[in-house]
């Protein structure tokens, strides 16, 4: 027996750029140009190339093509979670808008610790993305150093500061807290329970609420922090804990709509009517908030607009276009519904 036989000899060969060129009846250089720089190639030629790509099963090496153009067409998008709807609309909008500009999204979930964010972002940068979207403005010093050394455009989202790493699209969580506090003080309520998720942005909203509520003498405020991610289960347990410890409340302020939905369910299970016996407010105007019974009063932020703005700011900067505003505050609105 011949023991020198090449074990890879009978393995199917991956299609090459030359295979595509033969199938399309074009030169390899034209095929490469159509795949890596389609703006300089006629639409009819691009169609021939793409038909050949599909027929041969060729997978373009975007990284190899990017070595010449210094672009990979990848945008890394870093969010803490997608297991509730808080970030889903923004992520979808980023992906849709990037696709229109000819880029691909590489999505990573990092949780709520700066250590995890730093580790994952450092790994992402080895893929040489053309740009990056980061959630929030609070990052470790190691991450900031890595980002600056990478020298790529960065957009931070879902927060507000006049001094971002590079660019920013977001809103003020502190101002949202203030708006909620003023809304309830105008109704002459005095007893407030707060159910707050443990992430930093939720805590900022909570502190903004408390700052306003404490401005009125005699206000009773009880707040509890529940573990992330915020969901209906912890919303129910949060209200249960508040009621068992302090009995009566005029309003329950939740740092997400999912917590508010859970609080409403727990209130009804205990024979409390919302809003007659207890007002409940949430945050983010998630897709179920208007259809809940009772419909949830909440703070609305334009999650789609955040994604669209972030994607276009990145693409503009990558392509050498001027970015008119490096910090965009999209604001927010209070949506009053049945629950409060």
Q: What's a quick, concise take on this entry?
A:
Pfam families: LacI, Peripla_BP_3. Keywords: DNA-binding, Transcription, Transcription regulation. The protein contains twelve helices and twelve strands.
Walk me through what this model shows.
The protein is of the alpha/beta class. It folds into 3 domains: 17-60, no CATH class; 74-171 and 303-330, Rossmann fold (3-Layer(aba) Sandwich); 173-300, Rossmann fold (3-Layer(aba) Sandwich), CATH 3.40.50.2300. Helices cover 43% and strands 16% of the residues. It is built from 12 helices and 12 strands. The chain has helices at residues 17-24, 28-36, 43-56, 62-69, 88-100, 114-125, 141-150, 173-185, 200-213, 232-246, 257-269, 303-318, and strands spanning 74-79, 104-109, 131-135, 154-157, 167-170, 191-197, 220-226, 251-254, 279-281, 298-300, 327-329, 333-335. The strands form 3 sheets. Strands 2-1-3-4-5-11 form a 6-stranded parallel β-sheet, with helices on both faces. It has a 4-stranded parallel β-sheet with strand order 7-6-8-9, with helices on both faces. Strands 10-12 form a two-stranded antiparallel ribbon. α11 links the parallel β8 (251-254) and β9 (279-281). α1 (17-24) crosses α2 (28-36) and α1 packs across α3. The longest helix is centred in the last third of the chain and has 16 residues, at 303-318. The N and C termini lie far apart (83 Å). The model is unreliable at 1-8 (pLDDT under 50).
